[in-house]
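Hello Y.,

Per our agreement to keep a running log of every chain we model this quarter, I'm adding this entry. I've kept the format consistent with earlier entries: sequence first, then predicted structure.
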Amino acid sequence: MISAAKIRRFDTRDGFELVDFAEVGLPVFRLTVEAVTLQKTSMPTIEEFVLRSIEAGERKAEGISRLLGLSEVVVRDGLDTLAYDELVAVSEDDLDAADRTYNVT
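Predicted structure for the entry above:
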């Protein structure tokens, strides 16, 4: 049996008669999304492997050049390009070029 209060509350459409009702719960979902978009770009091979070396743990140009078997001048040029493109961050406390440490941004 439907109470009169519920009939008055839910029977508001003209031409229709409330026959039955049931309470239902509708799920509400909260979804947090962090989307990272990638753009495929071509990167020179030396810069790519210098960047991989930093990710592997080598933070100084001397260690990267030994790891890759490249001259330190070539590695420093790659690091300068990566720093210009803001792909690596140079530590501010190292003023001497030989002691600079690099981190992937």
